[in-house]
Design brief:
Helices cover 46% and strands 14% of the residues. By secondary structure, it is of the alpha/beta class. It has three domains: 6-131, Rossmann fold; 149-324, Rossmann fold, CATH 3.40.50.300; 327-450, Helicase, Ruva Protein, domain 3. The strands form five sheets. A five-stranded parallel β-sheet has the order 2-1-3-4-5, sandwiched between helices. Strands 7-10-13-6-14 form a five-stranded parallel β-sheet. A two-stranded antiparallel sheet has the order 8-9. It binds adenosine-5'-triphosphate. Adenosine-5'-triphosphate (ATP) binds at residues 151, 153, 155-157, 183, 185-191, 254, 296, 336, 372-373, 376. Adenosine-5'-triphosphate binds at residues 151, 153, 155-157, 183, 185-191, 254, 296, 336, 372-373, 376. Residues 127-154 form a coiled coil. GO terms for molecular function: ATP binding; sequence-specific DNA binding.
């Protein structure tokens, strides 16, 4: 029995409804009937039928098929994925042809033979399944292209703190529990989220990222839940939201602490109902995603300050993992530094570069407000500038005293100085540092990039 399909039969003749239902019930467990076509809408919303078997005429004495065509067009408009098979009487060939042009999959003549009806329904459902697969693949492809920004690096760690953390992550990854990753910027939250997905039973399906810190208020719903063509001015095509694209996979909600209260409520509703509605549509779609969220914000403090909803926090933090900053796991510094050295030597065609003992000391003593990302940029810059076989100096602010004023009035240096100072004051929290500096997060990222921070 094909349990997963849902079929609706619409006919005003109770005998036809009964005989079709009895026949189809033997093959499909989810069969519904309606004697009035005006019920179609509520069925579409409630059950999202894969197929509708639709009569052409409902009013007594009328047999021009216009009603059938009207409802067919309506169904295709509201739910394009639903296949429609029309039931026509002998001699209504012209109407049947018109119906196919209007989007019906096929038609069957009344009275039908059971074999003919079953085989027409069977091929329509197969066609619909294949089409859905293709559509989902196409939409996944577009969304995946956005997610590829996360690098595929193996997670390197040696410190006991990270080894413990990885053991926990491995255990949790195997379940469907939602994970909240907490840690300063650049500690590796995105890398860990991807690692958790890879270690999970969902790893054959998509890993989809949403940067909630970068998504505008107006695009939030369309990005997360999708939209129907024409739902707003720029909605040129139907688009699946990230929740849908991540179906049966993992959805990574990065920077969740940046979500304002209104959007937190919208997200919570979807998580509670496990259903999402595309903008411009009125039917809900089931969602089956494993949620991994991350933030560098003090989320529990934010709950106390009424800036983050406690009920949303409970939804996302079934397991909470705190990633220690790099300065608290110094054992990781040399292996990461060497890995980055090898990577950038390859990239910039420099061979046999090594850290001098003095530069190794620098690496240990520095307090790394930008964590691993900063270490990576520091090593890259040093490789570019290195002239001999050794990296002699990394140019880090070793005494960690960002209050030291830059020499002279060089604007670039002053900018770097204040960026560092803001990062230091806010313990690497980009959002807060950006706020202190009067910049957007994106603008601060650009400046950090420019100064190799
Ligand atoms: N253990 C690791 N091994 C190798 N590379 C790592 C490791 N952890 C992080 N990285 C690298 O460090 C950089 C920062 O990592 P990532 O983007 O995951 O940090 P994050 O905590 O998500 O940062 P943000 O909060 O700014 O988004 C990336 O380039 C990533 O590849």
């Amino acid at each position: 029995m094909e349990k997963s399909y849902c079929i609706l039969i619409v006919d005003d003749d109770e005998d036809i409804l009964t005989s079709a239902r009895l026949l189809l019930k033997q093959h499909y467990s989810n069969v519904h009937t309606a004697s009035d076509p005006r019920e179609i809408n509520s069925f579409l919303t409630k059950y999202q039928p894969d197929l509708i078997l639709l009569d052409m005429n409902f009013q007594r004495g009328v047999n021009d098929g216009r009603e059938g065509i009207y409802w067919l067009k309506h169904i295709k408009e509201v739910s394009p994925e639903t296949q429609v098979i029309l039931m026509t009487a002998y001699g209504e060939v012209e109407i049947a042809v018109q119906a196919i042009k209007s989007g019906a999959y096929d038609f069957v003549l009344k009275p039908w033979t059971n074999e003919k009806l079953l085989s027409t329904i069977g091929t329509a459902l197969k066609f619909s399944r294949e089409r859905k697969k293709v559509e989902q693949l196409e939409q996944t492809k577009t969304t995946l292209e956005d997610s590829i920004a996360i690098k595929n690096e193996d997670f390197i760690s040696k410190s006991p703190a990270m080894q413990n953390l990885m053991r926990t992550l491995e255990k949790v990854a195997a379940t469907d529990a939602n994970i909240l990753l907490l840690g300063e910027n650049g500690t590796g939250k995105s890398v860990l989220a991807l690692a958790a997905h890879r270690m999970s039973g969902r790893n054959k399906n998509s890993f989809i990222t949403v940067d909630l810190g970068a998504i505008s208020h107006s695009l939030f719903e369309s990005e997360l839940f999708g939209h129907k063509k024409g739902a707003f001015t720029d909605a040129k095509d139907d688009k699946a939201g990230r929740f849908e694209t991540a179906n049966e996979g993992t959805l990574f909600l990065d920077e969740i602490g940046n979500l304002d209260m209104a959007l937190q409520s919208k997200l919570l509703t979807v998580l509670q109902n496990r259903k999402a509605t595309r903008l411009g549509e009125n039917r809900e779609r089931e969602i089956d995603v494993r949620l991994i969220s991350a933030t560098n914000m003090p989320i529990h403090q934010m709950v106390n300050d009424h800036q983050f909803r406690q009920d949303l926090l409970y939804r996302i933090n079934t397991v909470e993992i705190q990633i220690p900053p790099l300065r608290e796991r110094q054992e990781d510094i040399p292996i990461l530094a060497v890995r980055f050295l090898e990577k950038f030597c390859r990239k910039y065609h420099k061979s046999n570069l090594r850290f001098s003992p003095a530069s190794m000391d620098e690496l240990y003593q520095y307090h790394w407000p930008g964590n691993i990302r900063e270490l990576e940029h520091t090593v890259e810059r040093s490789v570019i500038l290195a002239e001999g076989p050794y990296i002699e100096q990394l140019g880090l602010h070793l005494n960690n005293n960002t209050d030291t004023q830059p020499n002279g009035l060089n604007l670039e240096e002053m900018e770097k100085h204040y960026v560092l100072k803001a990062l230091d004051k806010n313990r690497g929290n980009i959002s807060k540092a950006a706020k202190d500096l009067g910049l957007t997060r994106a603008a601060l990222y650009r400046r950090m990039e420019k100064h190799g921070l």
